[in-house]
């Protein structure tokens, strides 16, 4: 069902409703956002921006606030995932119109409002991570990130964990981002790793690598 596909593709949880058959605008909005996500992570900025505008345009065509809110929150999540500061302003402006509790719950995760997150609305891939963060168990959260299979979800969880991520988790995640060719993810994680390396020579080489990639 297209709404479920859309929200999953935006890194969200599950849809608030299921349509028996997708409309053309829903399908196209979803497809453009999925293309935006990939081009964004590939660091193809011009293509990514074009895809994002198309995804928004088709969502507006159907007058669907839930879908439009999902797009804006998905955009914010991707920015956060690669270390770009984003307070989800576009989503915040429309939140009072959003009726889907799962979307609102996801926004709380992006804002790190751990105490206010309803764990029952968190999918299995995030549940252990969010539960650890709610408890303040940062070491445990780091361990759960290693077990997240989806690369984009892993990248977001790493960003939300912040400076508490271990070098082991970073190195493993960099290999995964490299496999998928997610340049923005690689650069973001290399910067985190740079700040944790103490050996001067190793840090110098990593900085040189970043200069070549960034």
Structural class: mainly alpha
Low-confidence regions: 1-14, 17-21
Strand content bin: under 5%
The ordered H/E elements are HHHHHHHHHHHH
**How far is the N terminus from the C terminus?**
38 Å
- How much helix, percentage-wise, in residues? 55-70%
Shape: globular
Radius of gyration: 18 Å
| Record field, number of beta strands | 0
Return the average pLDDT rounded to an integer: 90
Keywords: Signal
Organism: Sulfurimonas marina
Protein name: Lipoprotein
Describe this structure in words.
The chain is an all-alpha fold. The protein has two domains: 1-111, no CATH class; 113-189. Helix content is 69%, strand content 0%. It contains twelve helices and no strands. It has helices spanning 2-9, 24-41, 45-61, 65-81, 89-94, 101-110, 124-135, 138-146, 151-161, 167-180, 183-194, 200-213. Helix 3 packs antiparallel against helix 4. The chain is globular and about 55 Å long. The N and C termini lie far apart (38 Å). Mean pLDDT is 90; it is low at 1-14 and 17-21.
Summarize the structure.
By secondary structure, this protein is mostly helical. It has helices at residues 2-9, 24-41, 45-61, 65-81, 89-94, 101-110, 124-135, 138-146, 151-161, 167-180, 183-194, 200-213.
List keywords for this structure.
single chain, Lipoprotein, signal, 2 domains, mainly alpha
Topology:
Layout (H helix, E strand, L loop, with lengths): L1 H8 L14 H18 L3 H17 L3 H17 L7 H6 L6 H10 L13 H12 L2 H9 L4 H11 L5 H14 L2 H12 L5 H14 L1
Helix pairs in contact: 1-2, 1-4, 2-3, 2-4, 3-4, 4-6, 4-9, 7-8, 8-9, 9-10, 10-11, 11-12
């Amino acid at each position: 069902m297209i709404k479920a596909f859309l929200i999953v593709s935006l890194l969200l949880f599950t849809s608030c409703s299921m349509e028996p058959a997708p409309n053309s605008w829903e399908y196209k909005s979803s497809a453009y956002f999925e293309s935006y996500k990939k081009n964004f992570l590939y660091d193809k900025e011009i293509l990514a921006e074009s895809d994002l505008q198309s995804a928004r345009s088709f969502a507006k065509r159907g007058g669907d606030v839930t879908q439009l809110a999902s797009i804006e929150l998905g955009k914010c999540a991707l920015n956060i995932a690669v270390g770009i500061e984003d307070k989800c302003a576009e989503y915040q402006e429309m939140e009072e119109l959003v009726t889907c509790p799962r979307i609102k719950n996801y926004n709380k995760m992006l804002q790190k409002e751990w105490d206010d997150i309803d764990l029952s609305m968190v999918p299995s891939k995030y549940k252990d991570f969010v539960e650890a963060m709610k408890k303040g168990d940062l070491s445990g959260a780091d361990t759960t990130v290693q077990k997240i299979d989806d690369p984009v979800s892993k990248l977001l969880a790493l960003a939300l964990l912040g400076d508490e991520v271990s070098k082991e988790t970073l190195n493993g995640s960099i290999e995964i981002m490299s496999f998928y060719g997610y340049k923005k993810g690689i650069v973001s994680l290399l910067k985190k790793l740079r700040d944790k390396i103490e050996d001067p020579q190793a840090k110098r080489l990593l900085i040189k690598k970043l200069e070549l990639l960034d």
